[in-house]
Design a protein that fits this description.
two-stranded parallel ribbon, alpha/beta, single chain, Rossmann fold, eight-stranded mixed sheet
């Protein structure tokens, strides 16, 4: 039994990158096609690393600000473009970066690099908008990156869809018999970052989420400010919160302000 335990633990340690990251690569010479105004931008981080960023624009030329959207662990920007209209209808640009190895972004991928590239996107946004016109939005895996960014840079508000307490805590939900706090290569302590954020925070999570369990995410309530919101969507699963009227009512009210 000890040998089996150790063997499974070793396997889990070495495959965790494949569990956390499920990218779809796109040849850089292939142009994107979206049914909305957009601009594709390459941010050169260094000689080898480049972040591919897609900026989506509202139809109206008058813009209220920008939503920096940090997506989940699967696919690339094409998978998440369908959610852009939730924000552009309210006059916001939406900028979605692909993480290293996703879409057309190239380079190494570490926790530190993910944070640094998010800050580069924020820096570019600040060259056009004031901090109170910048909304930081995270979905699934991207919630931890979004929470980090909002903890170190000012913004109008932080919105998280299906967040996790931390990566080790997420692993605990699936393999509680292992010392995940030591085994996890990525920590991304969302709970710690939320405690540093002075701006309003809104969290959406479904009770039937089978990817990031509700029981894990609900622990984040303990680190929220009294004025923050934790919106529970009954029967919501990980990928369908966009189908619930409650999600849109709350999101619309946040974006109208």
């Amino acid at each position: 039994m000890v040998l089996v335990y150790a063997l499974i633990g070793i396997i889990l340690y070495y495959i965790q990158d494949y569990i956390l990251f499920q990218p779809t690569v796109i040849e850089r010479s292939i142009p994107y096609k979206f049914e909305m105004p957009f601009e594709e931008v390459d941010l050169a981080i260094n000689e080898t690393d480049t972040v591919n960023l897609v900026k989506f624009f509202p139809q109206d030329s008058v813009r209220k600000g920008v939503v920096l959207y940090f997506h989940g662990n699967r696919g690339n920007v094409k998978r998440y473009a369908r959610f852009v209209k939730n924000f552009t209808v309210h006059g916001y640009e939406v900028w979605i970066e692909d993480y290293p190895g996703y879409g057309k972004s190239v380079g190494q991928r570490t926790e530190k690099i993910l944070y640094g590239e998010a800050e580069q996107v924020y820096k570019l946004a600040r060259s056009k908008y004031s901090s109170d016109s910048i909304i930081i939005y995270g979905k699934s895996f991207g919630t931890g990156i979004a929470a980090y960014l909002a903890s170190v840079q000012p913004c109008q508000q932080l919105i998280l869809e299906t967040p996790y307490y931390s990566v080790p805590a997420l692993f605990d939900a699936y393999a509680p018999i292992y010392p995940n706090s030591r085994m996890a290569k990525y920590k991304i302590p969302t709970n710690e970052y939320l405690q540093e954020i002075k701006q309003p925070i809104t969290i959406f999570h479904g009770t039937d989420d089978g990817v990031i369990p509700y029981r894990s995410a609900v622990k984040l309530k303990a680190v929220l400010k009294p004025t923050d919101q934790f919106i529970t969507i009954e029967k919501g699963i990980h990928r369908n919160l966009n189908e619930f009227p409650l999600y849109h009512r709350v999101l619309d009210s946040l974006l109208r302000n």
